[in-house]
Amino acid sequence: MNSLMAVLAPEAVVFQSAAKTSQEIVLILARKLERLGYVRPSFVDAVAERERTFPTGLKMQGGGNVALPHADPCHVLKAGVALATLKESVAFANMEDPGERVGVDVVFLLAINDKDQQIEALQTIIATIQDAAAMRALKCARTLAEIKSVFG
How many angstroms separate the Cα of 52 from the Cα of each of 41, 56, 84, 115, 145? Predict the structure, then answer.
């Protein structure tokens, strides 16, 4: 099992969300992680604050943009990653140019309290999102088995 699948919270995967804003999808995913005992109640506000200061929208070659919102480890009780695919893109501020908005199709909400595990999960995510075929499969996924097949 790769590092991302080891921390992906299956109950915190949302397929084809109809969320209209970045704040809405982050709230949906953060509340799932909170209900499942992964994060403290302070997590959602910490993620929102971090997104204002250090945005995480990533523009990818060939489309399929992603966002990787997260917060400091002090808001995390146990490691977990929530994932959402979106019916329609929602705008996140661009990680490289915070003044630019990026239409994001897939959101990985990281709740990781171990720096080494966070690096491994990020490496897996980055490798996947750079693969256009994997991103197409991820955007179209409707089941957890389909998500697992993307990440190997």
Answer: 19, 9, 20, 22, 34
